[in-house]
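Structure ticket #2291
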Amino acid sequence: MIGVSRGGTIRTDERTTIETDDKVIVAGSDDAIQEFERTVTSS
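Resolution: structure written out below.
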């Protein structure tokens, strides 16, 4: 994960909690992004 966009601000602190209306910016290989998506969906 690269960052979380919330209210027009990009937060890059790795401890930022992802909230319902946040937009998450992700960079990596296709496999890494798919693993991230599975983790978020199952949480």
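Closing remark: The chain has one helix and three strands.
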